[in-house]
Amino acid sequence: MPIEPMTSAQLRDAYITGCGSFLPGAPVGVEAMEDHIGRIGGRSSAIGRRALRWNGVETRHYAMAPDGTVLHSNGSMAAQAARAALDDAGLSVGNLDHLATATTQGDYLVPGHASAVHAELGAGPIEIASYQSVCASALMAMKGAWLQVRAGEAEVAVTTGSEFSSRWFRPEFYEGTALVDAKGRARMEADFLRFTLSDGAGAVVLEPRPKPDGLSLKVEWIDLTSLAHAFDPCMWAGSTFADRADMKSAWSHVGPAAAHASGAVALLQDFDLLKIVIRAWIGVWMKKVDDGRIVPDDVDHLLCHYSAKSLREEIVSILRSTRAMIPEEKWFSNLATVGNVGSASIWVMLDEFMKSGRAKRGEKVLLIVPESGRAMVGFMMLEVV
Prior knowledge:
Blueprint: E1 15-22, E2 28-29, H1 33-37, H2 48-55, E3 59-60, H3 74-88, E4 98-103, H4 113-121, E5 127-132, H5 137-150, E6 157-164, H6 188-194, E7 199-207, E8 217-226, E9 235-236, H7 256-262, E10 268-269, H8 271-290, E11 301-304, H9 309-319, H10 335-338, H11 345-355, E12 364-371, E13 376-384
Parallel strand pairs: 4-5, 4-6, 11-12
Antiparallel strand pairs: 1-7, 1-8, 2-3, 6-7, 8-13, 9-10, 12-13
């Protein structure tokens, strides 16, 4: 006999009652970024300065020192952000029922990232869930935690997004592989990302009621749309550029040494495909406007994750001639000061937004998280209460 789905009347409301973030180390300025992550072959990148102008990042944070010393783990950064969010909600680790974690790559291949974060938190027996993708994994984890609270399965849920991207960018990932030519120059699809991604973590707390003092955010809805059926991977690790759509070519089938030599282990991006995927993201956005899911005039604040200032400019240029455009004075971003922190970006952004004093009761806050991994985009509508 089929199971009857719960109706909206049977589901509880859920509220974000706390936000937190953790950014490792002191801010690193553009002039020091390449020395911090290391110069491939000891030489300056041919595209590094151009990449930094393109993405508009002025400072970012790294969990690894210039000499390669690891200062934090991915799991420990997520735990720090979770503690900050719980503290912001007036709660402690002992109140936690459900932990949902998001990341591009955890500290281990196995087990899941949530296990590492749970261990770092030092919480007692709780329910955990690991979500692995790229930027949109933040909203995957959020939707899972939100539904847990709505269904009455959890009274306090925390969702985290965290990244330790800089460990991918050490020169050893590229030197001696097919990603570096005879002159010692790294291929663009590998080198560009070294100047694009940052380290850090963000977290939010969900409860079935707003906190008694201060502002909370009622979660109105969360939508996730994957377009993986229509596109090859756009950002990936685990295959070569040419073979990335062939799952039988994955790195593990040939062994780690051969995969490394072929350049299949490093994080890569197809920038020509990215330009096409941008339009696919916007297509989903515009359909939500056409369907009435998003009413631009009703949105008071837009927090849109994007990896580069130039991508924002392209998104705006496409939307400006449509009724889906939300005026730029309503946009909030901290990309310039923290960089692109992948799955952590949206929570680090929301944390700074809520602490900025901009949010007022009754306002609508729209969060949008596009992901170039394999053409995915997520949306979340919040109301300040």
